[in-house]
Specification:
- With about 110 residues, the chain is mainly alpha-helical.
- Helices cover about 70% and strands about 10% of the residues.
- The protein has six helices and three strands.
- It has helices at about 5-20, 25-40, 50-55, 60-65, 70-85, 95-110; strands at about 45-50, 85-90, 90-95.
- A three-stranded antiparallel β-sheet has the order 1-3-2.
- Strand 2 and strand 3 form a beta hairpin.
Length: about 110
């Protein structure tokens, strides 16, 4: 179970991404992205490819929960990869360590302003 602060942070972060990049523009895409990031949080930042894409996998569950097709859920996953938030690895997917570093540097720089 996620903390309410974490859930709020993810929501604010997705709204920020939409404003800055133009990706994740629709409410459906943001809901799916929220569900994907929540799933990564529950799996300690890493999800194996078979856990993501199998018929009982995360993508199909997220698509069912949000009332979208699994193709739409994969498109949102691709947008998160394009943004550099999620990295595709040999064994699956993980929250991008480079993105975390960039986000920390941005946070640090904003604190200096």
């Amino acid at each position: 179970m996620m903390k309410p602060e974490t859930e709020k942070a993810i929501s604010e972060f997705l709204n920020f991404i939409e404003l800055v990049s133009g990706k994740l523009r629709t409410e459906k895409k943001r809901r799916v992205a929220y569900s994907l990031l929540k799933a990564f949080s529950e799996h300690n930042g890493r999800i194996k490819a078979y856990e993501m894409g199998s018929k009982d996998g995360i993508i199909f569950k997220i698509a069912e929960e949000n009332g979208v097709s699994y193709v739409h859920a994969y498109e949102v996953l691709k947008e998160l990869i394009d943004l550099g938030i999620i990295a595709k690895t040999i064994t699956g997917y993980e929250l991008s360590p480079l993105f975390r570093k960039r986000l920390y540097r941005l946070y640090k720089a904003l604190g200096e302003l």
